[in-house]
Input
Amino acid sequence: DDPDLIAFSRHPDAPALISETGPLTPDHVIRTKAPYLFVRAEEAESPEAVRQAVGPYAERYRSYFEENENRLTGDLVMLDPHPRVVVVEGVGVLAFGPDAKAAAVAGDLAEQTLRAKALAQAVGKYEGLPPGELFEMEYWSLEQAKLGKKTPPLLAGQIALVTGAGGAIGCGIAEELLSAGAHLVITDRDGDRLEVVRERLEAKHGAGRLHAVVMDVTDEASVEAAFGSCVQRFGGLDLLVPNAGIAHVSPLSEMDAEAFRRVVDVNLTGTMLVIRAAAQIFERQGTGGNVVVQASKNVFAPGAGFGAYSASKAGAAQIAKVAALELAPIGVRVNSINADAVFGDDEVSSGLWDEVGPDRMRSRGLDPDGLRAFYRERSLLKVAVTPAHVGRAVLFFASSQTPTTGAVLPVDGGVAEAFPR
Output
């Protein structure tokens, strides 16, 4: 969006300089490729026109590889043939890469390259190295070593958005996704809790793949803005985890209607609104995706005094099944996780248990440690379910390791009455 680069993109010489000449120095080729892709303003208005522009670029790169691979010895493997830098007439420079860092490097190099080419053209003519010499540099073993040969993480290049990330489960999910290489947008309506989680995650994983946005899942404008921020920051969306949820403890005979509506708004309507927003992005992208809904053990085993929570989570589970039916044609898988009794820690507590824990302790005459022990011993496996356990379940679905959609995975230590049926 630099004014000088936008002006350059409109210059008559721009298409040739951008798409037919190489980089300033040969080693830039491994970051940006030799020519960039130039897209005219009218083409940028149509997704199909953009795809038609990318196709010939990739074919041109394949020809470049085939024509020059005999210049080097050994078995060469062609790199990704798609553009790393795209200049859109009247818009500016767009850069792409396997992660945000690589894209930023490509973008920085491209901006300086275009400035230098514009200056050179103003006083004479810019001439880059011939394709064969660029090829030798691009596929030289020492240059290839700069790119690294490590096996990419499970979710490398994937972009995820997690709602309700200010609580224990949301934080645990975020931790697992970042550890698996995802680029992540964490959201919560409580900015203070969200900031605590952001600082915790950033301390371990850095800021490059993490973006925090305050979002209220019950507010359509807030949802639209948050998803727009995700796309603007990282370029799209591959995974949605609707995790935001609240509870209200009350027998039906004493239920406050407004409190009931508030729980339904967050747990059911909020789930629908974020799935709707994600579905619209998935449809535009045409690259598939995953939705992993954080439902609850209460979907199959509701609890007395938990009518608002149980009903709203059952509704969210039904929304997930409908989404699985509707989004399968575009390659999007929708699955659910039924967790139970997931407590947080001193730094990031569970908002749900902050709400219902005191009532549960009073009814059973337990202190906080005793309450945790009660739920642990209630499970068949006699284990404490942690936020990390839920995060790993999300990771399983997010990695598309099996052709599964419409499924429910319990993460509850084994609660017989909550077995899926």
About this structure: The chain is about 50% helix and 10% strand.
